[in-house]
Amino acid sequence: MTNQSAARRQRLLVVEDDQEIANVLRRYFSVQGFDVSVAGEGTSMRAILQAESIDVVLLDLGLPGEDGFALTRYLRETWKVAVIILTGRAESVDRIVGLELGADDYVTKPFDLRELLARVRSVLRRTAAAETPGSNSTGNLRFAGFTLNTGARTLTGPEGDEVPLTTGEYELLRVFLAHPDRVLSRDDLMSHLHGRDTGPYDRAIDVGVGRLRRKLEDDAAKPALIRAVRGAGYLFSARVERG
Ligand code: CA
Fold it and tell me: Which pLDDT band holds residue 133 (cuts at 50, 70, 90)?
């Protein structure tokens, strides 16, 4: 275990209209060393995000007013924050839609608090690893007219426009850029992304690839950059240059 006592406390925002669940989460994560804020709906969520530097949002899907899907989209478009969706609905369509919209992970109620804590820590580790200078070489990676700045974690398109990426999309793109012109299986991609913290989401890679394609490809329906190799996985087909 590393000594994290010197590090700043991680800030967690619970967006949940069920007071009882919100209180359980507040108490549990406070004891675990987090600074916890609670919002009951979207408007107060936005106010807290403006006022505090939040690291991770635990977002209930079923909220009064704007639902969790709309708020996930808003969070992705507006804030660099990890998002874990909480829902009472077990349907996988919710999970897929949530991941499509850019959530980093997904937990179904009733959840086990220790499992939720593990998910939160895993998401924060991934975010920190991607942001820590020196964990990977930083600089510019150029491919197909795009420039990925690995220090600032920004992607610039061929027209000079910034292309917003979620944490998950950024990390997946980094894996592809590190292994151009090589077939990577879904297992390869999962282990590069999560190490031993492989999640239970077999479709998460396909969802991530679909999202990246919509941002990178001229025609996402006929991908030329991230090509599917039948029965094997994906191949990133571009020359990658540093500098
Ligand atoms: Ca609810």
Answer: very low
Question: Ligand 1: distance of its center to the CA of 39 in Å?
Answer: 11
CA 19 to ligand 1 centroid distance, Å: 9
Residue ranges, comma separated, of all CATH 1.10.10.10 domains in the chain are 140-242
Neighbours of ion ligand 1 (CB under 5 A): 17, 60, 62
Distance CA 172, CA 192 (A): 9
Structural element, H or E, at residue 156: strand 154-156
Ligand 1 geometric centre to CA of 147 (Å): 41
pLDDT digits (tens, 9 = 90+) for 90-106: 666 677 777 777 788 88
State the distance from the centre of ligand 1 to the C-alpha of 127, rounded, in angstroms. Answer: 27
Rounded-to-5 percentages of helix, strand, coil across the chain = 40, 20, 40
Span from the CA of 55 to the centroid of ligand 1 (angstroms): 22
User: Which residues on adjacent β-strands are paired with residue 162?
Assistant: 156
Rounded distance from Cα 62 to ligand 1 centre (Å): 4
pLDDT above 70: residue 232 = yes
pTM summary value? 0.56
CA dist 60 and 138 (Å) reads: 35
Query: Start-end ranges of CATH 3.40.50.2300 in the chain?
Result: 11-131
How far apart are the C-alpha atoms of 109 and 87, rounded to whole Å? 6
Confidence check: pLDDT of 5 > 50? no
Chain segment 175-215, per-residue pLDDT in tens: 899 888 888 888 878 877 765 444 555 577 888 899 999 99
Which one of 1.10.10.10, 3.30.70.100, 3.30.1380.20, 1.10.3720.10 gives the CATH number of domain 140-242? 1.10.10.10
121 CA distance to ligand 1 middle (Å): 23
| Assigned CATH class of 11-131 | alpha beta
- From the CA of 206, how far away is ligand 1's center (Å)? 29
